[in-house]
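Query form — protein Large ribosomal subunit protein uL15

QUESTION: What is the three-dimensional structure of this chain?
INPUT:
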Amino acid sequence: MSKVMKLHDLQPAPGSRRNRKRVGRGPGGTDKTAGRGHKGQKSRSGAGKGLFFEGGRSTLISRLPKRGFNNVGTTYEVVNLSQLSALEGGSFDRAALEQAGLVRRKNRPVKLLGSGELSRAVTVRVDAASASAVRAVEAAGGRVELTQAQAGETEKAE
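ANSWER: The structure tokens for Large ribosomal subunit protein uL15 are given below.
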């Protein structure tokens, strides 16, 4: 009759597992300097100074010339006209769009885009709107109201 092996019977093969070397703990080969040599930065505790550390001088990345530009623009929550036409009601603001599930992130401004058709008059109050979206809403008999912060910037851009 063969013995059935069970999980609690499993153990590593003899000699395959060794205890870790505890350096700097008395005589026995790894005493005294504990394999770090004598003095110097790398012999001290916390010696790893990071990938780009160059002994205290400025790193290469900061010595090279900088080119181009970093234009961090505004990221909008986008609502299309096709999404508005699928909703019931004639007036939409941020709260109504959040309730309908079209706007999820509360810290981003809302922008109306002109993708899709609009067959009825609606009033939309958003932070920004594309020119094609404004034309389409007004052609359907509605109007787009921009919030105060964005309204001034849109007028300057036109």
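ADDITIONAL NOTE: Residues 77-157 form a domain with the Ribosomal Protein L15; Chain: K; domain 2 fold (CATH 3.100.10.10).
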